[in-house]
Design a protein that fits this description.
The chain has 215 residues and is of the alpha+beta class. The protein is built from 4 helices and 12 strands; from the N terminus they run βββββαββββββαβαα. Strand 1 and strand 2 form a beta hairpin.
């Protein structure tokens, strides 16, 4: 589990295809301290397992499914990724609870500068828009953010970023057309799907209509 509070950025130092998987090596710098093989680390919000550790350099074995469904497949040596070590009991929960299971990618479609701050708009798969709402939570490349704007007709959401977030994460480097990993809030997803399932049940609808008529 993760919180969406990015701890730093790591540099991709190796990409190797072998045995049907991608061996992604990232220099985590001081964030590799105390890390052991088998530990989970979020890279751009995607939960990956450390398979080999050589000082600050950590190798992650990434399956094709992950490479295809996230922006990890577009990485090149020298690129940077947002890093977060897994949540430990007793840690401060400054963002929101994340699983590191990326829901899909979103495309940067507009960047509006307002002094030192920026508002970024992202095109989102229409199937995910039902889980995204104004003032709700979303994780973009592993960063926990509050949604500041919703354009349902255009399948777009906006987030407003302060200088601290821009400087601490890769979001300060993205440009229009770039892909970011998106994870929806699991609690919101569960509530929305439960309500939709209930509303799709004719017996439940009949009970609701009956109660409304009686009132």
């Amino acid at each position: 589990m993760f919180t969406g509070i990015v701890q730093g950025m790591g540099e991709v130092v190796g990409i190797e295809a072998a045995d049907g998987i991608c061996r992604l090596t990232v220099d985590l710098g001081p964030h590799a301290d105390g890390l052991t093989p088998g530990a989970s680390v979020a890279n751009n919000g995607a939960c990956l397992t450390a398979s080999a550790i050589d000082g600050p350099r950590v190798r992650f074995d990434v399956i094709a499914e992950t490479m295809e469904r996230t922006n990890l497949g577009a990485l090149a040596v020298g690129d940077r990724v947002n890093i977060e070590r897994s949540l430990r009991f007793g840690d401060e929960l400054g963002g929101h609870v994340l699983s590191g299971h990326v829901s899909g990618t979103a495309t940067v479609c507009e960047i509006v500068a307002d002094g030192a701050n920026r508002t970024m708009w992202f095109e989102v798969d229409p199937s995910l828009m039902r889980y995204l709402m104004w003032k709700g939570w979303v994780a973009l490349d592993g960063a926990s953010l509050t949604i500041s704007g919703v354009d349902r007709a255009g399948s777009r959401i906006a987030v407003s970023l302060i200088p601290e977030t821009l400087g601490r994460t890769t979001l300060g480097q993205v440009t229009v057309g770039d892909l970011v990993n998106l994870e929806i809030d699991a609690q919101t997803q569960a509530i929305v799907q439960t309500v939709q399932d209930l509303l799709g049940d004719p017996d439940f609808r009949a009970q609701i209509l009956g109660a409304a008529a009686a009132a």
